[in-house]
Records
---
Amino acid sequence: MSGTHTVAAIDCGTNSIRLLIASAGSDGRLVEQARELELVRLGEGVDATGAFRPDALERTFAACRSFAAMVEQHDCDQVRFVATSAARDVSNRNAFFTGVRQALGVDAEVIDGTEEARLSFAGAMSGVQVSDEPVLVIDCGGGSTELVLGRGTGIDSQVSINIGSVRLRERFLHDDPPTVEQIDAARKYVRETLASCPVDVAAARTVIGVAGTVTSLSAIEQGLTEYDRAKVHRSVLTVGQISELAGKLLSSTVDEVEQMGPLKRRRAEVLCGGALIIDEICCLATAGRLVVSETDILDGMALAMLAQGS
């Protein structure tokens, strides 16, 4: 590893915490050394209580200790830890900051939705080739969803909205499976939120989806029994397929959802909420299809660190 600038990017969201360790290739593209994901559900109950639960914090810190060992093993020159939606508005943030510093030796940054959107757009665009036309990147997380419209490396408009798979499940979709009334209430809430959204979703000629909801939908649609990043990356879902998948997930129990594909339990529990959000957004888009990208905010973070380092 000597002579190679290696960086570690950690993204801590409402449902998952993820690590990317990478260096820069001779062509400026990322050379991936390691990529890990742990479903820790840090944001469990946050929508209702406004605080992190002690067990959710401990799950997150355990993942941080595991990531710290990998960072040390790869002799990383720089580590950046960003926390997104769940950490923006909790009363006990200091307990989170202290635990992360003890486990990883770095300070957690709570980034705002604008920064999250910018990094997600950069990451998505690094992995999917598109022509010079309006592109919409959708990053549907557990607590929030980022919508970014742009072209090339330029962003025209962006927004972070407080709808996510965990938030929707906890606030509306209480039953297993959710009732028709619960689904209608969730859809009404998502539609009202999107109606006041400053990003013109219909203007996009290409729609790219990143993060766990869309990658899981692709894996289910392809009938994968084991998760395969190569098969998921750049796969395409039509609006019709997304709508059908959302309907199927919303009418299934968590046990049934878990059997639909290579899904971990904490993903299966909230996937119906994420699918509903993606369905509603894609219904507003005129592109007719969604390109699934495995490159996302982590790749955006790593690229930015490597650009600074060089």
---
Amino acid sequence: MSTHINAPEGAIAPYVLFPGDPYRARWIAETFLDDAKLYNEVRGMLGYTGTYKGVRVSVQGSGMGQPSMAIYAHELMNDYDVQAIIRVGTAGGMAPEVKVRDVVIASTASTDSAMNRARFGDVTYAPAADFELLRLTVEAAEAQELPYRVGGLFSADQFYNPNPITQTLANYGVLGVEMETAGLYTLAAQFGRKALSVCTISDHLLTGEETSAQERQETFDSMIVMALEAVVALDKSADKKRAQ
């Protein structure tokens, strides 16, 4: 049991889906997992464990922004020995080729976060996804014939930024903006675990198009299926490695 997650030992699976919205966590558990059980509701940050195609999977809300996300990711990896975390969230589209409802699998994450500056000082650390998890998610998307894009995201410290640099980042190939991925990738590197962000474009900074709060909470099925299928493949890969 940790400070912010009220789960007994063994209640959390080695693989965790990690939405920001705790109500999306509940929707994922009720919609996609078999025999899902609630293991956490401290501060309303819901967490569930169930199975998907016979593989134990947990889903845990993280809250918004890197500071909140980092609390839960740290405790999941440090206190509950979670081996892989897949963020399933939303992002704002920045590049003209990205459309609302597109799914972006984040290979890298740029950031303006003070958290990484505090950790690395003058060094510009480059947070990146785990390659095996990225590869398995791409393969899952293609097997399910689900459209996707692979590219970089920008993890911003501020949602309402009076001096946005999103256009500059888009000019350098960054596809979308959200608030958690860079911190997640950094923590996964610290603990030697696997992490990936799979984000649906919920609105677009260039066109002004957006989805409703209800849609963001209870739809966007494609990214959930990609993530869960990747977990199944990762579990099979782990079994093969253990048998060698």
---
Amino acid sequence: MTFTITQNQNQYLTYCLKDEEADAYLEVVPARGGIITRWQICGEDIFYLDRERFKDPNLSVRGGVPILFPICGNLPDNTYQHQGRNYTLKQHGFARDLPWQVSKQSTETAANLTLELNSNEATRQVYPFDFKLIFTYQLQGNSLKIHQKVINLSPEKMPFSIGFHPYFKVTDKTRLSFDIPSSQYLDQGTKTLHSYSGNFDFNLEEIDAAFLQITRHQSSFSDSYHQRQIVIGYDDLYTTIVFWTLKDKNYICLEPWSAPRNALNTGEHLTYLEPHSSREAIVEMRVNQI
């Protein structure tokens, strides 16, 4: 097996991971939120990316795999309280907007790239904790694994949620079928519960569905147009799957979250890390031909 990691200096320094035997390819841009911008299997793009938005550092990225931390979703008025003080934290947190640092890379048994994000004065203004995130992207065969480690460097308990917002490229949404392990979802726009039997109405302008009671640690969808199945596996830190798309856009998002929207206020499925302790988790995405 031949694994390589090279660099391209585009607008941002881009790390290019390859599994040459499997004809698999991954691009990671540390400076733009540690984001994965491209994943290809046999030359076929798995992810969507709005490249014009991506070029503008003032805009959030639409595409690839943005990292959500220390919240998933938004807070009412973008506000939460900690020890009697109000803090403002915008949707999905700040990890997707900050530059990450590459700390390690290896190509022995897979293409592995490790990135780190440390708390700083700006993060402490909106989230009063010291932390370190260590993520390793692992490309091997038809699999993309994301190993995560969250370390609390604070002298007090640190509450957080973490997640991913992958944008999967699709061409014809009517040719998609879903296997999401839940019988109901919360419409995040109307705040109403709906029963779920595997279908979505793609005539709606927007679908924003939170599956809050998932019964197993795997979700998938099949795409008969591209003749592939995407399988997302996640460990027990992840409690919520969000499905999001906009009408007439050629992407869908199937997002593993460790806690639902507004967990920093409600406490629902919120993770609390003891001082100077850590929590690890894995999310894996696989592409199967159908």
